[in-house]
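ok new one. same drill as before - structure tokens go in, u give me an amino acid for every spot. 176 of them this time. try not to just spam alanines like last time pls lmao
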């Protein structure tokens, strides 16, 4: 084989290897969670591209939250052409949480839209949780949500735990 043919085969081999590597890399980028790649592939939607006319925040699993518990937040958007967009996560939609600004009082909300309340009920006693969602790319959009606190659930569970017998409890017959 001539030296020129060997060079052509090596170049062809490296080019096909690069293409195969790129084809293997694309699904990996999609699975790893790179948001900009997901937006370009149409798997996620960016709010700054379309005219959004309204939005609504909700807690679909339970309207209230007990101390030490978590509940997913879902935000629904309506565009000018009546297209409905929903946040990723519990909403199973295409809108990224990073496109939103979420502020909370008494409760806290993480970057994935999970609302939580501290375990200690004294922190939230007599207060109402409040969540405000805004969209930086649409300054006129704002949704507010009051989160009722369910203190009775915690006390009910605590009384069940206190009433449950344990291995360390001595039978009353043996103590007499």
């Amino acid at each position: 084989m001539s030296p020129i043919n060997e060079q052509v085969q090596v170049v062809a081999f490296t080019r096909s290897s690069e293409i195969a590597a790129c084809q293997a890399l694309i699904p990996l980028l999609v699975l790893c969670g790179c948001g900009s790649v997901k937006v370009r592939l149409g798997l996620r939607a960016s709010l700054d591209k379309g005219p959004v006319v309204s939005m609504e925040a909700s807690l679909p699993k339970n309207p209230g939250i007990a101390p030490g518990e978590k509940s997913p937040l879902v935000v629904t958007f309506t565009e000018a052409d009546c297209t409905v967009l929903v946040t990723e996560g519990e909403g199973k939609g295409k809108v990224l949480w990073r496109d939103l600004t979420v502020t909370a009082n008494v409760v806290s909300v993480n970057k994935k839209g999970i609302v939580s309340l501290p375990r200690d009920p004294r922190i939230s006693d007599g207060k109402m949780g409040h969540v405000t969602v805004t969209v930086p790319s649409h300054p006129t959009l704002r949704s507010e949500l009051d989160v009722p606190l369910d203190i009775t659930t915690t006390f009910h569970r605590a009384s069940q735990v206190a009433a449950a017998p344990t291995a360390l409890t001595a039978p009353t017959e043996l103590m007499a």
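The beta strands are 52-58, 70-72, 74-79, 84-86, 101-105, 108-109, 114-116, 129-135, 138-147. and btw The chain has two domains: 3-32, 52-157.
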